[in-house]
Amino acid sequence: MIIASLTALWKYRTGRQLTPSALAGPARRGLLVAAVVAIHLEILAPHFQGVYLRILWRSAAYAALTTLLCLIIGYPVAYVMGTARRRWRNILLAAVMIPFWTSFLVRTYAWITILREQGLLNATLTAMKLIDEPISILYTPLAVVIGLVYAYLPFMILPIYASLERLDPGLIDAALDLGARPLRVFSSVIVPLTFPGIAAGVLLVFVPAVGMFAVTDLMGGAKVLLIGNVIQNQFGQARDWPFGAALGIVLLAMFAVVFAAAAGELVSRDRGRGIWRRRWPGRRGSPPPGQEDGASHLHVALG
Questions:
Q1: What is the pLDDT of residues 137-166, one digit of tens each?
Q2: How does pLDDT run across 248-274, given as a tens digit for each residue?
Q3: Quick one: 253 exposed, middle or buried, by C-beta within 10 A (0-12, 13-18, 19+)?
Q4: Cβ atoms within 10 A of the Cβ of 274, count?
Q5: DSSP state of 1
Q6: Most-buried pick from 48, 105, 109, 196 (CB within 10 A)?
């Protein structure tokens, strides 16, 4: 039925019969891919119940929240690193890289020690008379978010820092000389110029955060169940490898959509139709400020 529908759609759109020779091009081969995916989903439909869709959306929500918090925390840190003197820049860079010198499990257990009821956080708050009795943070959604943000924060800081390090300070000074306020300079000059670093950081945080299962197991207990935990259980305790593989394919397709969206925006930017086109209207393919005529682009960007 699916193949017949695709054949009818092809004939309606092109006026030709769907023959093997008509499937030679990449776009036409995509019809076969769509048919295979549709048949695969029909086979898995009885097993792919609503509970798994809710878990998938929950995983995406946790990953999106983690990415947003990493961006909010990481951008100022990266900006300070990118604008600091070389000595302090190296110190801050080493501080960001220190977590990679230890095992991921060791860092996670360290957070468990900090967040438990008899841990460092509750002891400090109690000593400061801010709370009367320990608060339960461990094995809650908040603990999972804290663990995810801590685990992936360096992956947001480093790409943005690389973009800020290449930023010409003269553009900021020129924008200020043109009368732009600091907030306008940040939104119209600094953020667009560091967009490639932001996009790279978002991908490096969001994609692994969706499939993370170690943090949710150790810091969330059984109260937070994400798609990574489900896939782990299917390959482990449940021994349902086909369904676990199907969930992995769904997760892979989700990643492909995210990568395609980011790549499309970057390609549009290079061709002058993406974010650069909206902020610096000009001829097709014109480079962003700082790569051609920075002063003229600043005049356009700042109005």
A1: 889 999 999 999 999 999 999 999 999 988
A2: 888 888 788 877 877 776 666 666 544
A3: exposed
A4: 16
A5: -
A6: 196
User: Within 13 A of 79's CA, how many CA atoms are on the CB side?
Assistant: 13
Reported as type and span, the H/E element at residue 248 is: helix 241-271
The rounded mean pLDDT for the chain is 77
- Residues ≥6 apart with Cβ < 8 Å to 53: none
Instruction: Quote the tokens at residue 199.
Output: 């996009």
pTM of the shown model: 0.72
Q: Going by C-beta distance under 8 Å and a sequence separation of 6 or more, which residues neighbour residue 285?
A: 270, 271, 272
User: Phi/psi of residue 283, each to 5°?
Assistant: -70, 160
Neighbours of 149 (CB within 10 A): 22
In this structure, the dihedral spanned by the alpha carbons of residues 245, 251, 252 and 253, taken in order and rounded to 10 degrees, is 120
